[in-house]
Design a protein that fits this description.
Layout lengths: L3 E6 L11 H4 L4 H14 L3 E6 L3 H14 L2 E5 L8 H8 L4 E6 L21 E4 L4 H26 L1
Parallel strand pairs: 1-2, 1-3, 3-4, 4-5
Bound molecules: 1,3,4-trihydroxy-5-OXO-cyclohexanecarboxylic acid.
């Protein structure tokens, strides 16, 4: 599997920086993209950075990642709380899944407290702003390194 991480962003995240900045901050999605590229390249990894407002497009990208990516970082935005279809797509993906929310969804309205995606995610980061994407990529890089080290062990014995 190549060293590519799919970064999948859901609805309204294209408005980051302009939309409810008191909750989501002033940084834009371009800032998030730059942060992801910088963090991944520090570990020799690459990112494919994606955003859509359409559920079916997010599902198509997750399915594409099955053949192309070692991990998915996903902020499903409002679909976190509604989409069994996105959960099912993620369940078909064998690599690492990191779920990111800019805001702390547990400190907000009760309908945001449940995320379907969390039942598949290997890690969940909420409330760290755009740094959450950096933490997610660092987690993936660490897991990937551990996995590669383990893969070498049987050959040594
Ligand atoms: C969000 C939290 C969701 O509840 C919300 O619908 C979003 C963004 C976050 O990043 O904090 O659009 O996923």
């Amino acid at each position: 599997m190549s060293g590519v991480i799919y970064i999948v962003n859901g609805p309204n995240l294209n408005l980051l920086g302009a939309r409810e900045p008191d909750i989501y901050g002033h940084e834009t999605l371009d800032d998030v993209h730059r942060l992801c590229e910088k963090t991944a390249s520090a570990s020799g990894l690459k990112v494919k950075f994606l955003q859509s407002n359409a559920e079916h497009q997010l599902i198509d990208w997750i399915q594409e990642a099955r053949k192309k990516a070692l991990a998915i970082v996903i902020n499903p935005a409002a679909y976190s709380h509604t989409s069994v279809a996105i959960l099912d797509a993620l369940k078909s993906f064998d690599g690492i899944v990191a779920e990111v929310h800019l805001s702390n969804i547990h400190r907000r309205e009760s309908f945001r407290h449940r995320s379907f995606v969390s039942t598949r995610a290997d890690c969940v980061i909420a409330g760290c702003g755009i740094s959450g994407y950096r933490f997610a990529i660092e987690f993936i890089a660490q897991q990937h390194k551990n996995y590669k080290n383990c893969a070498i062990l049987p050959q040594l014995s």
